[in-house]
Amino acid sequence: xxxxxxxxxxxxxxxxxxxxxxxxxxxxxxxxxxxxxxxxxxxxxxxxxxxxxxxxxxxxxxxxxxxxxxxxxxxxxxxxxxxxxxxxxxxxxxxxxxxxxxxxxxxxxxxxxxxxxxxxxxxxxxxxxxxxxxxxxxxxxxxxxxxxxxxxxxxxxxxxxxxxxxxxxxxxxxxxxxxxxxxxxxxxxxxxxxxxxxxxxxxxxxxxxxxxxxxxxxxxxxxxxxxxxxxxxxxxxxxxxxxxxxxxxxxxxxxxxxxxxxxxxxxxxxxxxxxxxxxxxxxxxxxxxxxxxxxxxxxxxxxxxxxxxxxxxxxxxxxxxxxxxxxxxxxxxxxxxxxxxxxxxxxxxxxxxxxxxxxxxxxxxxxxxxxxxxxxxxxxxxxxxxxxxxxxxxxxxxxxxxxxxxxxxxxxxxxxxxxxxxxxxxxxxxxxxxxxxxxxxxxxxxxxxxxxxxxxxxxxxxxxxxxxxxxxxxxxxxxxxxxxxxxxxxxxxxxxxxxxxxxxxxxxxxxxxxxxxxxxxxxxxxxxxxxxxxxxxxxxxxxxxxxxxxxxxxxxxxxxxxxxxxxxxxxxxxxxxxxx
Length: 580
Ligand code: ADP
Ligand code: MG
What we know:
alpha+beta; Heat Shock Protein 90; Ribosomal Protein S5, domain 2; Ribosomal Protein S8, Chain: A, domain 1; 9-stranded mixed beta sheet; 5-stranded mixed beta sheet; 21 helices; globular; binds adenosine-5'-diphosphate
């Protein structure tokens, strides 16, 4: 017969260690978070052998009273919360009281600390969870936690550690995440006795820290975000779509100062980029979201890098709209290339008008091919166009590129890609400003639905009809598509309905229809835009440049490729080594 027994404390701590400190980098995270919770303004981290041999974190925080050193190493001992109510509004990074006990159970740990009022510091050592006696020590006010030989007594876990350089990589990543979370704190990192990073404390504004951590290249190709909705605030930096970066590693999201991996926010960010970023690229960002403390639950994961929002829909919509606005702004405002005000573009052409008037879905797009030449005229008052951000056209190259001259130098425009975006944005705008047409299906299409899908269809019928859908509930497990958005009448109605229901359920709104519609419009735009190898008159080229300046997202074509590049005179001088 099985015997049930209560586990000894050290074993409990070792089990918890598996969740809280699965590698040196996670121990580092817990220690630095403790320093931040202790109001430290200077934190120095020293690693040996990637943190496997030694990991030491010293701070100038509030320190601990001698008796608290003992307590600090006990399981579920914390100074940060005392009641369930405290947990609901927790503002500290730690609160579960298990990090130090867990780390102590799987390493040799030395904890030295001194509070502001103590005459001297105290030190206590623990070896594999066996806690020694308290002794006097020398230390300025603050705390120093020194861990050696992590997992020395748990060989099974130690086997999972990678090489020192891999573990160092993880620790560095954690260190940078923490440094980005608090630009106002001074951080130092050394590895094998060599100083690696030194981040000076700066104000609360994350600009300097973002540049220090993510690098000048990111910083120069990023857009600033700062938007407030009363209770929610989102600020930080996001990469311009043209930032050449293929990986996902430069993505930092902070919720109330805590680094998190959050599917909801990541989804909202991806959606905001969906129309401007090449599908193989990933955006880079460091974004800080602040929400009321009682609107977010931080106690959903032992390592606390996940959160749950009370009203996730609101957060999703807020993040999406803020970023969409920043990314949609004309590339000329963003890049600061607009030194002079753009003169208003006199509009003698009916080109714009025609694009707006295209009637969908019945209209035949191809019947509206532009005879661009006669439709485009440019005001005579503009002589060489240098005052415009994209300058005045000087030539067309190989039927593909427009060369133009602006105040800073030379601009090269991919005319097909640029025109495609101009047409696409116009089509979207035309569609946005009219009501979504619903098309009833001749025969409703029934499909087997999950209980959740049925609930969503029932509770969100208004939202569904606003985006052009009508779903009927035939039984507790069957739905039927009765109507779809007219523009998407040819798509697979059931799978579209399913996608829409799942998005509404997860994010409170659905962009699936928008996305499908945009895909369709993008295809139309591609067919409708100037093909390569068509000769353009100077006035036509200029008209396209002026259109680009006024079009949202015109810095990228519909597939996320850049539409233009600028070569300033100083870049050209460098190319020809002038003045060297
Ligand atoms: P938690 O952070 O969840 O409270 P920990 O095991 O990480 O649990 O730490 C236990 C307690 O030890 C903390 O609540 C805090 O009172 C104290 N402590 C830990 N590290 C520090 C530090 N660097 N400075 C001051 N106090 C500390
Ligand atoms: Mg802690």
